Amino acid sequence: NKRVVLRNYVVGFPKESDMKIVEGRVKLKVPEGFDKVLVKNLYLSCDPIMRVLMIKMDFIDEYHHYTPDAPLTGYGVSKVLESGHPDYKKGDLVWGITKWEEYSFISPSQICFKIEHTDVPLSYYTGILGMPGMTAYAGFFEIGSPKKGENVFVSAASGAVGQLVGQFAKLTGCYVVGSAGSKEKVDLLKNKLGFDEAFNYKEEPDLDAALKRYFPEGIDIYFENVGGKTLDAVLPNMRLHSRIPVCGMISQYNLAEPEGVTNLAHLIFKRIKMEGFIVNDFYHSYSKFLEFVLPHIREGKVVYVEDIVEGLENGPTALVGLFSGRNVGKQVVVVARE
Ligand code: NDP
């Protein structure tokens, strides 16, 4: 059983050498009286939160922090080989929390959903039909409360979550602009993902001026994925009674000291609602989300860009690539295709 384990707690930017591949034995049998499920992992999801779990910390209870020499945990798509749990049987496909290894015992009491629709790529359950999809849906519609005609700005816009927020904004009848870190990503946003405008934030010496150019009347919803300098530039450009769903702050995850945000007083004058959220609190809406998104996928009205690497041994490179923007779209690792 090949696995990816953490070598040691991570300081600064994560490196491939912070993880290692080890081979171990696994008994492909569910022990008597054990209510877990033995799965073969097919697709693993690379998620920015995994970096946050690579340090010793105690303020997030929802997640299992990594410990050295143990396999990473994360979202994945898996096939049930054997089940000690009454709700699961051999051959079922599931998505949810698993481990970075070929075979795992998973606990259905953790996040675990049975996959019912297989006319779409299975890997989508690490992205558009899985955790990032739910994140975009809950963050944009529930926290962002969008209205037709509003102006929406999305950072890390071509990524797993951002590309969906932009498309959901267009479906709602909003004007949407995305920022991303390369020309290739900007072209993707404008030509494939239907954003009205997009820009490369790395080539904008003055982010405030760029935002004023794209939003002369200001921003109604800023979907926050990156934090730091981007947030600081956005705040003065927000409109009265605008909203900021705070999904993530990837620019801060590797810093020893978070960057100061100086423009927070705009929250007061503009009556801005800035609200953090965690997708785990919204999984009760998962079936409603599927009803919404599946027809759009089937009709080609919502598309999804994935960046797929083959082989568990290439997982560490793919994971650390999130922090240099190497991934174009949702970063997926294929462990096995069936
Ligand atoms: P992505 O697929 O967007 O991958 C990460 C991207 O972030 C990179 O490709 C890169 O794109 C960008 N990035 C990396 N470093 C920086 C930086 N220093 N400054 C600006 N951009 C940077 O990831 P996801 O869509 O999976 O996640 C997006 C955000 O949503 C993250 O902050 C994540 O933590 C958060 N999240 C929160 C959840 C919740 O429940 N609240 C659930 C899921 C995700 P580029 O080339 O454009 O710079």
Structural commentary:
The protein has 338 residues and is of the alpha/beta class. The protein folds into two domains: 2-127 and 304-334, Medium-chain alcohol dehydrogenases, catalytic domain (Quinone Oxidoreductase, Chain A, domain 1, Alpha-Beta Complex), CATH 3.90.180; 131-280, NAD(P)-binding Rossmann-like Domain (Rossmann fold, 3-Layer(aba) Sandwich). The protein is built from nine helices and 15 strands. The strands form three sheets. Strands 3, 4, 5, 6, 7, 14 and 15 form a seven-stranded mixed beta sheet that branches. Strands 10-9-8-11-12-13 form a six-stranded parallel beta sheet. Strand 9, helix 4 and strand 10 (197-200) form a beta-alpha-beta unit. Helix 2 packs across helix 3. The longest helix has 13 residues, at 131-143. It is globular. It starts with a strand and ends with a strand. The mean pLDDT is 96. NADPH dihydro-nicotinamide-adenine-dinucleotide phosphate binds next to helix 2.
Which radius of gyration do the C-alpha atoms yield?
A: 20 Å
Mean pLDDT: 96
The overall number of domains is: 2
Q: Characterize the biggest β-sheet.
A: 7 strands, mixed
The count of β-strands is: 15
Q: What is the element string, with H for helices and E for strands? A: EEEHEEEEHEHEHEHEHEHEHEHE
- Number of alpha- plus pi-helical segments: 9
Helix content: 10-25%
The ligands found in this model are: NADPH dihydro-nicotinamide-adenine-dinucleotide phosphate
CATH class of the largest domain: Alpha Beta
Low-confidence stretches: none
How far apart the termini lie comes to: 16 Å
* Classification by helices and strands: alpha/beta
- CATH architectural arrangement of the largest domain: Alpha-Beta Complex
Basic shape:
globular
Give the amount of beta strand, in percent.
25-35%
CATH topology of the largest domain: Quinone Oxidoreductase, Chain A, domain 1
The CATH homologous superfamily of the largest domain is termed Medium-chain alcohol dehydrogenases, catalytic domain
Domain Oxidoreductase N-terminal: 2-110
Keywords: Oxidoreductase
Domain Alcohol dehydrogenase-like C-terminal: 160-293
Pfam family, one: ADH_N_2
